[in-house]
Design a protein that fits this description.
- The structure holds three protein chains of three kinds.
- Helix content of chain A is about 75%, strand content about 0%.
- Chain A is an all-alpha fold.
- Chain B is mainly alpha-helical.
- In chain B, helix 6 packs across helix 7, helix 7 runs antiparallel to helix 9 and helix 9 packs parallel to helix 10.
- The longest helix of chain B has about 35 residues.
- Chain C is α/β, with parallel strands linked by helices.
- The longest helix of chain C has 19 residues.
- Classes of the chains: A mainly alpha, B mainly alpha, C alpha/beta.
- The interface between A and B is large, with 46 and 43 residues.
Chain lengths: ~300, ~300, ~350
């Protein structure tokens, strides 16, 4: 287990360095980062001056080394629009996105996992058909569309919830629900197939052959092994939510990471875009590391490995 | 029982087609998916013939007309008009062209690049394989939506850029699948057996590798097409995909969003329904394809 | 419909008596006739070897008895299976869910083929035994744990108290199969069904497991045993009687010596001819009979072995042979009298 933890942690750190390199190149995909970041109406002299100021005229490898080096020492650069440290801007926005994504994930788990279990335990029956239908429905509903519909129905027409901004916990209801449906749908389907696999496994047959009650077979053998398998599934879904937050936060005008990315792109504030991207990627890598470690700890086959 | 590698048998063409018919008729969900996908294709191809109006024609006298089935609506504009008096139905019909183009060409490019990289990784192996697969893992470690948003914002709004963007960024998935399949076949001794009988690489590829890749890649491509159409709509919605003068479902939703509080809900409802229906049809088709084509699944069932 | 076997004696000397069992599966390609009228009988303490190639219906038959077949797609179409324990008689195929659950583990134990996948990877070995002990002996946790440790010791696991806390992946294949046997013994059932228990193990370990079953189950407890295998050589070491299965039916059954010395079915003869000489490793499989196994999608109202049979004639296609007595408890289902070389009239 110790070596496993060490290996996975080092792997994740390397992955992060790789992501820093990718993010560096992403912004240079158009070939000329200077004109990308300047307003369209800027004169060529202004662009040239900006290019020199940002060091975009230096050789690419030097720029890369410089960027990777400063990121690894905690210097993420300055926002063009806000004229302040990008990391500070990002950190400020984290709590809202974290709250929103966690609420959405919670809703998705509370609805999706039981539905998936229901479907998997009753494969081929009506309840399975219903669960699969709901799962597929959730999966194919674009969150940005659902958000609009929810606003039209529950904010504009019924007036039950605010349509934008944060005004107490009630403001989270619509955004969190809109954000959760995709993850909910995928969870239904993934839980269902995991349950099916476990139910069809030899060890569940053994459990049945012992004469255990259906309750014991489900509780002691099916659910436990399903839950362990779901750890990584859930962490992947959580990262999806971080992406979906871009739509939801900008539709509901919530000051989170996602809406910050939207603003930064509209303002061509690419240093800020880079830092947000790095931050979200780091969160995704961290989550997957966490999930793997949790899985390793839950599964004796990895936990007891030397 | 494990009985060696399984080769997807397509048999003689006519028998294969009849078998296909039998398989699709037995699965109503797959049949619905197939019919919907084909209809979408037809709508996209024949948009000028089908659409009742010019999707760009503005008519201020007929602006903000509600759908035909609600009060004040007219069958002249079945799904209503937007603020500039453009016909929503016609715009949705033309919008299918953007979605289909992105989905189809995006997937085609992704399959091509991914298969190429995956074959190299699988056949050459060693350090090159390791390097390529680390690159794949690296790209897949960043949430996909964030990648496409950032790249789209750098590249600027054009249909070509969007197609390339999805083609390239989705290719790692196909590379991984291809490589996995190649390794599976190699491990099963298929390739070395063929080599031993004097087969050359091109022969091995066409006789043993490609037939086995068809199932998994086609299945993945169907799901990815649906994902690309989804993400394209999202990018349009954020103003990062095709230019605003081209009717696309995402662009339409974006303008629906601007009219949220002015009582034009049909501008938001119908384009979203089109996206959801497209996703539904491709998922149903993909599920069915996976059931009948993926050798791993078949083996697990058999 | 096929009327099987000669009527069983009214005095029920048999522990388990299966009569005319038919099981089918629904598949995308149509109905699969997996078991087509299987009949066999088992006396208390007796050991029966069930021999047949894969697809002959031997495992499906046993799973059907205790309701372990997934339904759908499986369905039991016909038959009875009388189990007589402590003077009480019940038909397993007509039993309700709760009733059959009491049979599993308590009256019929099971040992499956691949002990790695048959054990729950995330549950401690001892706990997997103890949960069955608790169920069938109605013991509290501590007492059940004691019993489980004793069981581990009796199947030959060294340092059982410590090994109680191990997980399946920490054990070797042979040790895992010992654990499976301990699980089967946990409810102290009068019958244990072994479904190809040694197929996944190497030859020396196979012999150890067979020895263990003989001493711990047969000799010490007098447990009746059903041993499913495709290996006639393994059967010789453990079974009193043999039932040979083909195409979802028993084609021949009888005492082991009788079957070896006087086989009356062409298929059995083929099998015996395929066994290598006595002192080879005995692991040769039953693959050397020419032709392929029967198509289970066709309703079998003919002799299933007929396409591969050298003695087949018209009647074998028109009519399915039923079991007939040829000697004391020796029965065969064939239209041809192999000894005299003429069709049965």
């Amino acid at each position: 287990m110790k070596t496993y933890v060490l290996r996975r942690t080092v792997q994740s750190a390397l992955l992060f360095v790789g992501v820093v390199v990718i993010v560096f190149f992403l912004v240079r995909l158009s070939g000329d980062p200077a004109s990308l970041m300047m307003p369209r109406e800027a004169s060529s002299e202004q662009v040239q001056a900006f290019r020199e100021m940002m060091g975009f005229d230096r050789p690419l490898l030097i720029q890369l080394g410089d960027y990777v080096g400063s990121v690894l020492t905690g210097d993420f650069g300055e926002s063009l629009r806000f004229q302040t440290d990008t990391l500070g801007l990002v950190v400020q926005r984290v709590p809202l996105t974290f709250t929103l994504a966690t609420l959405a994930m919670g809703a998705a788990i509370l609805i999706g996992v039981p539905l998936g279990i229901l479907g998997g335990m009753n494969a081929g029956k009506f309840s399975d058909l219903m669960a699969r239908g709901l799962g597929l429905g959730g999966q194919v509903t674009p969150e940005f569309w659902l958000a609009l519909i929810l606003i039209i129905v529950f904010a504009v027409n019924l007036g039950w919830f605010p349509s934008f901004g944060i005004d107490g916990p009630i403001s989270y209801v619509l955004p969190a629900f809109a954000l959760s449906v995709g993850a909910m749908g995928r969870l239904v389907r993934l839980t269902r197939s995991t349950v099916l696999e476990v139910v069809g496994s030899d060890y569940v047959r053994t459990a049945r052959s012992k004469g255990l009650s259906a309750f014991d077979v489900a509780g002691r053998h099916i659910f436990r092994n399903t839950a362990i398998a779901l750890v990584s599934v859930i962490s992947v879904q959580y990262t999806y939510l971080l992406g979906g937050a871009v739509y939801i936060e900008s539709i509901f005008a919530l000051p989170g990471l996602g809406s910050l990315l939207d603003e930064a792109i509209r303002a061509r504030d690419f240093p800020l875009v880079q830092t947000i991207t790095l931050f979200i990627a780091a969160a995704a890598i961290g989550l997957s590391l966490l999930a793997d470690l949790l899985y390793a700890w839950l599964d004796p086959r990895i936990r007891l490995e030397n | 029982m494990t009985d060696g590698p399984q080769t997807v048998e397509f048999g003689t063409r006519s028998r294969g087609f009849r078998k296909f018919l039998r398989l699709i008729l037995r699965d109503p969900a797959g049949l619905i998916g197939l019919i919907l996908v084909l209809s979408l294709l037809l709508v996209a191809v024949f948009a000028p013939q089908i659409a009742p109006h010019d999707p760009l024609a503005q008519s201020l006298t007929n602006s903000k007309s509600p759908p035909a089935f609600s009060e004040g609506g007219t069958w002249e504009y079945p799904l209503g008009t937007d603020r500039l008096g453009r016909d929503v139905l016609s715009r949705i019909i033309y919008g299918a062209r953007v979605s289909v183009t992105v989905g189809f060409f995006g997937a085609a490019i992704a399959v091509t690049i991914g298969m190429f990289v995956g074959l190299i990784a699988g056949f050459v192996g060693g350090k090159l394989d390791k390097a390529l697969m680390s690159l794949v893992d690296l790209v897949l470690s960043v949430p996909y939506l964030i990648v496409v948003i950032v790249v789209a914002s750098v590249l600027g709004r054009s249909l070509f850029n969007v197609v390339m963007l999805f083609g390239v960024t989705a290719s790692p998935l196909f590379a991984r699948t291809t490589r996995g399949e190649v390794l599976r076949l190699r491990e099963a001794g298929f390739v070395s057996a063929a080599r031993a009988t004097g087969a050359k690489l091109p022969g091995i590829l066409t006789r043993h590798i490609f037939p086995n890749l068809v199932g998994p890649l086609l299945t993945l491509a169907t799901f990815e097409m649906s994902a690309m159409i989804f993400y394209e709509a999202g990018l349009s919605f954020l103003g990062l995909s095709v230019p605003p003068n081209i009717p696309s479902w995402g662009n339409m939703l974006d303008s629906g969003r601007r009219s949220l509080f002015t009582g034009l809900p049909w501008l938001s409802i119908f384009p979203g329904l089109a996206i959801a229906m497209t996703g539904l049809s491709m998922n149903l088709l993909g599920d069915w394809l996976r059931d009948i084509l993926d050798p791993r699944i078949r083996r697990a069932r058999g | 419909m096929i009327t099987p076997v000669t009527p069983a004696p009214r005095t029920s000397e048999f522990l388990l008596e299966v009569d005319g069992l038919k099981v089918s599966f629904d598949s995308p390609d149509g109905k699969v006739y997996a078991v087509n009228g299987v009949s066999f009988r088992l006396r208390p303490g007796e050991s029966l070897g069930v021999v047949g190639e894969s697809g002959s219906g031997k495992s499906v038959t046993m799973m059907a008895l205790v309701g372990l077949l997934p339904s759908p797609p499986a369905q039991i179409d016909e038959g009875t299976a009388m189990l007589r324990v402590d003077g009480a008689e019940q038909d397993l195929l007509a039993a309700g869910k709760t009733e059959i659950r009491r049979v599993r583990g308590g009256k019929i134990g099971f040992v499956f083929q691949d002990p790695l996948s048959a054990l729950n990877p995330t549950m401690r070995i001892g706990e997997q035994i103890a949960e069955s002990v608790r169920k069938h002996r109605e013991l509290a946790d501590d007492a059940a744990k004691e019993v489980a440790i004793e069981l581990l010791a009796s199947v030959g696991i060294a340092d059982p108290a410590r090994r109680y806390r191990s997980y399946p992946h920490e054990f070797s294949g042979g040790m895992r199969q010992r654990v499976m046997i301990a699980i089967a013994m946990a409810g102290d059932p009068p019958v244990v069904i072994f479904d190809e228990p040694t197929t996944a193990l190497d030859v020396t370990v196979q012999a150890q497991i067979v020895e263990l079953v003989k001493t711990r189950l047969q000799d010490e407890r007098g447990t009746a045993i059903v041993w499913i295998t495709h290996d006639l050589a393994v059967v010789a070491g453990i079974a009193d009687r043999v039932a040979v299965m083909y195409g979802g039916t028993v084609v021949e059954s009888g005492p082991i010596d009788e079957i070896y010395e006087n086989p009356q079915h062409p298929y059995t003869r083929g099998l015996l001819a395929a066994i290598p000489s006595a002192d080879s490793d005995g692991s040769t499989r039953l693959a050397s009979i020419e032709g392929s196994p029967p198509d289970l999608l066709v309703e079998p109202n003919f002799c299933p072995f007929q396409p591969r049979c050298a003695y087949a004639f018209d009647r074998c296609i028109d009519e399915r042979p039923v079991l007939r007595d040829v000697a004391e408890r020796h029965r065969v289902a064939c239209h041809f009298d192999l000894d005299r070389g003429v069709p049965i009239t």
